[in-house]
Amino acid sequence: MASADQAAQNSKGPGGGTPQGTAQIGVTGLAVMGRNLARNLARNGYATAVHNRTAARTRALVEEFGDEGTFVPSETAADFVASLERPRRIIVMVKAGEPTDAVIEEFAPLLEPGDIIVDAGNAHFADTRRREKDLRKRGIHFVGSGVSGGEEGALHGPSIMPGGSAESYQALAPMLEAISAKAEDGSPCVAHIGPDGAGHFVKMVHNGIEYADMQLIAEAYDLLRHALDLPPAKIAEVFRGWNQGRLDSYLIEITAQVLAHTDADTGRPFVDVVLDQAEQKGTGRWTVQTALDLGAPVSGIAEAVFARSVSGHADLREAARELPGPTPTLLDSAAYDRFADDVEQALYASKIVAYAQGFHQIAAGSAEYGWNVDQGRVAAIWRAGCIIRAAFLDRIRSAFDARPDLPTLLIDEHFGEALRGAQSAWRRVVSTAAELGIPTPGFSAALAYYDSLRAERLPAALIQGQRDFFGAHTYRRTDRPGSFHTLWATPDRPEVTPS
Ligand code: 6PG
Description:
Layout: H1 2-10, E1 25-28, H2 32-43, E2 48-51, H3 55-65, E3 71-73, H4 77-82, E4 89-92, H5 98-107, E5 116-119, H6 125-137, E6 141-148, H7 150-156, E7 159-162, H8 166-179, H9 198-228, H10 232-242, H11 250-260, H12 270-273, H13 283-294, H14 299-312, H15 314-319, H16 333-369, H17 375-381, H18 393-402, H19 413-436, H20 441-454, H21 460-471, E8 485-486, E9 495-496
Parallel strand pairs: 1-2, 1-4, 2-3, 4-5, 5-6
Antiparallel strand pairs: 6-7, 8-9
The structure holds 6-phosphogluconic acid.
């Protein structure tokens, strides 16, 4: 193969060994994501060192894609490190968890102060904080970086969310900007998110929002399917229409494609032959676990994670199948026309809530860990390349740019207006779903969150009373400061101030 020969020539030094110190950046871990990132770097003109635990993968990459740019392959970690110019920049693209620690332990002893390791996998931000701290002591920069966009994104332009030191970002920025997706205004979808684990934290929340967005879209589909009896191909058309408007997004676009797809074996709609048990690798779950620790109420994201979990409990679902409830019946023709439009409005409103909750969690994480995350920048780099890319992220960017300390997106002028316009339809959809017995945990949770935030008084006061009754947990009063306890067992129930 001509290209392989040429690549082999490109990549050998005069003596036939790996050339020393010539590669500008390296990628270790050449499964599809790592391979595509390496190709993206090489295509952008960067001499890219490549390495994999099993050398066959490295060879295959150079053979197949060697003509796309300059690859410098190595079979050993030592050769790989030696092939890099200084400061060395190494992107690690291996499985999160122990494999990442193993690779770091393999490479760190070969590196020198000032060198940079980038973990571009979906690591837990707490692991990233630990690794960054350990490597900092050894003088090595550790950059935990979110990378979103799947295989295609890695090759053609992902959204990149690097954490770590500002100094390491300086050394990486030109390369990351070159390989990243570009928003419509041409700006690269990469920004330094903040120190240590900030990048992986933001990527984790991105995935939590991704779960919520997918769940909401799935509920919209389910409603159209069961309340209007529309076949998947027709629903695909509805989604294609929605994609022309304010819901314009990658997830809506691919939903239309999935719904329009016919199974070749059976001739049935593809969506009808897929087992209805949603799986997960864990980033959505981490988002919710972390939100609980931070006290950030991400109920829409949590419902999306739980909905996947419910779907996977086949035995439980089987055991409960005979529970009574309405069999979804079709809406009458008068309601029919309005319903699809109502669902669009409910979807948009619920989506605003999901993003508002995710951004709230980012603000909470940023405050807890002192990251100083710029939420407008986060919205800006999610505008292209990532899975949740959507036209309305530009609106979110403007909202945070105009007011960086915005407490919630829901009160931004634009989104507040959209919610005001959508809320009647949103309520109709949630109540129709309840009447028809169609589960809409995402829509319902989003609406409940909205109503909770706008409520003048919440029944939390009653909960405080209950807590004080059985556990003397005390309560605060609306009319004066301090902590109070009622002596519930004493006949006249006097109130005391615990010392
Ligand atoms: C991305 C995706 C990517 C992936 C996740 C979610 O941003 O490119 O979020 O990280 O699709 O692994 O997968 P699960 O649905 O399996 O958790």
